[in-house]
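TL;DR need structure tokens for one chain.
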Amino acid sequence: MYNLSRLATKFIKYYLIASNGKGHGVHSPFVFDFIKNVLNDHRHFYAYDAIERVREKLLTNDKVLQIEDFGAGSTVIKSNQRKIRSIAKSSLKPKKFGQLMMRMVNYYGIKTSIELGTSLGITTSYLASGNLKGQVITLEGSGEIADVAEQNFEKLKLQNIEIIEGNFDNTLKNTLDKTTTIDLAFVDGNHRKEPTLQYFNQLLEKKTEKSIFIFDDIHWSKGMEEAWQQIQQHPEVTLTIDLFFIGLVFFRKEQKVAQQFSVRF
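>> reply
TL;DR here they are.
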């Protein structure tokens, strides 16, 4: 169950123990490089303004959509009929996270990304903009939300996105069967423990040593924290970075001993 006071307590604890976000005291060369050159890259990339203009329009759009929700559901809205602006307000990741993911795609040369949970397509657009020669495959449970996302991709002239509609339980396996490897995966579609672990294990079959998995809302609930802890302890995971609202997972073999970092962002 989502609880704001519990989340606030968790955030305070995270903030007190996390690295200061400058890389001081971080003894992993890879993590230090990530903090310096990706997390703290403050350049203003060309795509930021265009994507954020689309977000602004979504936040004022009163069109009502009929939603099929296969996940844990919205923490704010309970009705199956929702205005686009309400979805945008409650479901879209803040721009700093989308922009971080775009920088990750760009910096690490990501070619194939898969996203579980398209929503209105803002984070998808950031992923796609990081490498216009790469491919983003995004899965969305709700047909009407997927239609809005596709319209946004057209506005942004992004042609490297494939959107697949339907329940992840049905669409993920078929998608992975057609995919050789996954360079980056962003899991943002079902905030429950068992489905999250199920998706993680399915995605593992297509990972490489340099793959990056990103999990949304890792402190959202007790179940999500348990899922995150199990992912951190998986024998193939060599490195994790907790940014509180998202968690990053790496499989790099040069990391001889598995390490877990918390970094302020």
